[in-house]
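Tokens for chain A. Residues wanted.
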């Protein structure tokens, strides 16, 4: 029996003929426990902010761009995706179309790296993952270009400091936030490894060094103008 398994189970029982099976179950439960802890840790930020999370001033500071889905890197592991939110996104897009996404853009942090830019999703994982094109009732709905509000690492850290958000119990400083996001992206990709083909893994934006370069590359939209419009059904959207 490995030291790792003994650490989980203590002294093995020689009287129990199912001891090996029990050890495997405990080992699996321990892995699930650690996975759930990672999910909970990510939710510290994923559950915040929510409805109307950015102020008008912050919307004016960020870059509102339509980004192809394959350039968006999640920090949320597979286990954290919620079927209820998946249904909500698909239903909102079915009913309201692009208006739902344009009025509720995903919150993105741009992390520079050499000649590329990594776009990490802070909030809006379900919208990015489940808003793809599909046929519903004989018509095409959804999009492959996700409306995003993009901020630098410093701007993102400042947004959270204003709201007293802590990550792993620590105040959000620029370098710590960048490393925290990179770790989250690695964990997210790892959780999808068995089901995500290499060709579907998110990519960095090449030949981009700044937010201004992103603005030159991708089409923009007026987020404040879209948010000021009443929804077609006259009701409130579900923010996911």
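Reply:
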């Amino acid at each position: 029996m490995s030291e790792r398994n003994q650490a989980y189970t203590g002294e093995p029982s020689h009287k129990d003929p199912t001891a090996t099976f029990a050890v495997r179950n405990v080992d699996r439960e321990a892995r699930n426990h650690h996975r759930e802890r990672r999910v909970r840790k990510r939710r510290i930020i994923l559950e915040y902010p929510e409805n109307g999370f950015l102020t008008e001033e912050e919307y004016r500071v960020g870059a509102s761009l339509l980004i192809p889905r394959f350039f968006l890197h999640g920090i949320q592991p597979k286990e954290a995706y919620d079927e209820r939110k998946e249904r909500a996104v698909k239903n909102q897009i079915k009913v309201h179309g692009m208006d739902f996404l344009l009025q509720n853009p995903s919150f993105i942090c741009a992390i520079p790296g050499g000649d590329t830019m990594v776009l990490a999703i802070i909030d809006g994982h379900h919208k990015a993952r489940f808003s793809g094109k599909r046929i519903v009732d004989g018509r095409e709905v959804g999009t492959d270009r996700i409306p995003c509000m993009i901020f630098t690492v410093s701007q993102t850290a400042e947004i959270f400091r204003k709201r007293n958000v802590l990550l792993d119990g620590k105040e959000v400083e620029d370098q710590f936030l960048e490393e925290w996001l990179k770790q989250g992206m690695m964990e997210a990709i790892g959780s999808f490894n068995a089901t995500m083909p290499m060709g579907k893994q998110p990519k960095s934006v090449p030949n981009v060094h700044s937010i201004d370069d992103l603005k030159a590359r991708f089409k923009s939209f007026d987020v404040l103008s879209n948010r000021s419009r009443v929804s077609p059904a006259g009701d409130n959207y579900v923010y996911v």
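The chain has a mean pLDDT of 75. The two ends are 45 Å apart (CA to CA).
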